[in-house]
Input
Amino acid sequence: MHKIKNVKNKIINFSSKDLFLSIDYSKKVNLDKLIDLNSNYNFLDKKSNDLLKIKIENEIIPDRFLKIEKVSEKTHNKLKFISLAFSQSFKKDFFKGRISIIQKKENVIDVIFQLAGKWKNNIPKKTSLIFPFLRNLNNHKNFLKPGHVFNGKKTLKKSAWNFHEYPPAILTDKSKNFAIGIEFYDQFPWQANYNLSIHEAISKEGFEKYETEVQLTKNLSDVIVMRLYTSSEGKNKVFNLWKENTRSRYDLRKYFKPKNTWIKKNYITHFTFAYGKESFNYEKIKFNIKKIIKEGKEFGGYDSLIFWHQYPRLGLDNSNQWNLYKYLPEEYKSIKKIVRECHTHGVKFFIPFKPWDVRSNESLDYHAKSLENFISKTNIDGFFLDTMSSLPESFLRIQKKFPSFEFASEGTPREQRQIEQLTSSWDQIGDIRRNYKVEVEANMFRFVFPEHPLNLVSRWSVGSDKDSIIKRAAFNGTGLVIWQDVFGCWLPFSKKQKQLIKKLKNILDKFHAIIFGSNSVPLIETLSNGLICNQFCNNSNQKIFAIYNFTNKNIKGPLFALEPKTKIKLQQIYGINTSLQIKKRKEILAVFGTVYANEVALIHVKY
Amino acid sequence: MTEVKNKKIYIKSSEFIYRVEHLTLEGTCSTDHGPKNVKIKNLYVDKYPVTNKEYLNFVKKTGYQPRDTQRFLAHKPKNNQSNYPVVCISQNDAMQYAKWVGGRLPTDEEWQYIASGPDYSDWPWGDKFDPSLCNHDHNSLKPVNSNKQGSSWCGCEDMSGNAWEWTSGVYDDGEHRFALLRGGSFYYAHDHWHVGGGARKTNFHWKLQILNEGMNRASTLGFRCVYDA
Output
């Protein structure tokens, strides 16, 4: 039984349902214990776990200058906290601080660091903070940086995230049943003194040496708020706790408007580069949309086209992006005919917007009006926001007049408002200039916001990298951009690749509810090294496991655990046959099989 | 306003090391950029780009109307612009004119030789860029004889800036058709994603991807003729 407070021994404790924290402030402020109450496992096995050290210029303030001012604890209804106020005088500068632990929700605890400084002659000095306890946690053998996985001996980054919300770092106990998620929420990296970009630092190598500069204020202000998510159901549950907490700030109603549901099934979008034989018939001097749509059948059918003729032409003269439509055969009529042809075949039609072409005498309202006019004349379905990851406010009114009209951006939106308003985007990777290799890894954004459809693209990738794009799409359950004519470079998909995309599209459609389900979790625990696994599920009794062997050798053995149910139906729906079997392994029901080197398999499980 | 009288300048047959820079943000240009030895035949070249007056005279005399008239002479030249380079003409429109005057469009190699000469100068007037010698980054076209000081080694004027010039030939890389433009223009768009504008060096060509004639015409794009000697 842990006491909450022991002032005599200069120890203050905080206990939640499953986590116990103990701070010893007799000589310094030391986090003595961070204990899983289910197993009594202490995550902090080293003696020195100072919560904080302050470094002025090049000198760390010695512990002997520490003075504890006040120790508090309070519980009121469902809220409880403890706090420790301290001060330090050092070379005629004076510092105040407070460290608090507060809990409102059962599985969520905040550890808050606040600081203030009063400088000699009011001239501030360079101040850095060091968090030894965090460095120690980071060095714990079961510590996983955000989006990393264990691979037997070491951890590997197997994820990508391209938005401000960083998934938590995860600590697990020996059994891996108990997990703590550690988050440093930092919406605005340029915000002074708040979380100090620790979320980024902790995800990188070298965190054990991490120290960070702070601009001290005269009164106490928040410096670090470390949010701990705890669960005795392992890291998947921690991810979901973090996800729920993150999503709770968002207004996602726009994703569920009935007239916009088509965008969620926009799995395969074709980048229709106008200047090439793929789309233009030079003899007949017309766009051959029927041909494109027919060729799209090999990919399982295009769900949409993005018609592209402004770049790389804009800038030859002062014609703007709207003028260039007037120069097409029959001006707007040619687009109208193309759109009609597309609609006959159930294909949606996008045109792009080029923000970089907005002239000094053009406002975004002008472009919104031009778009409105264009929609009226041609009946297009969407606007693709070239180079953008945000939706200008001027364009929002378009959807009031044309409720089914959609916007898709080249970059995945990063900020809250944009994620709420911009309901579709590309998941674009790759760079022709940097020796880029397409990695099969989890896209964390996709799992936090499964309602936001993504189309994966790596425009310059060829050969095995094109294979990897398809694997990455299968692993993450995302659609694709079929972009074969990259501004005049012809980079087609092979027959085999087309077949795989067709297969994937059919799966995305058939299992849409599961793959885009709200309970999906990236990078779940696997039972053999060399594998990573995403789990897709909604609230039904079905799950789909996407498993990828990232090694160069076939992996035979247990793949992932199953729920201990009696009736389980197992079916591989994608990838080379893995000869699946259900067996017991150390009292755990598991799927066994062979995952081939560098291959992805999708496995459907019905309980 | 003095009327510009185009005159033919003789270019003596010569060997020439062709090496061209093709700079673009994305995509490629599948032509041989050299260095390679090319032989320039004896020929004559227009001192100036073809002017509005010259082209309108051709239209008037021949009744020329392209099959696809989209954007054809859409700049609608005013009377005081008769000495300006004709623009808003496609490569085909330019070839029709050239044929009428007994000439043709210069090849990409010929154009470069006429502009840079046996000394391989970077700009028609020499190796140092001097915006005062060409119509670079201005608001509009200027008469073709505005920069006598900027003439090339053989006396050709207006080869850099003012209006891009068509060269002959349509290239087909199997999937695309394109032509090569030379010289740059007065227009210099503001963003790096735009076609790089302004006056361009003698060893620079830009790949114009061919589409319908409306898209093949631009208000910065004209031509000059050469004549086999």
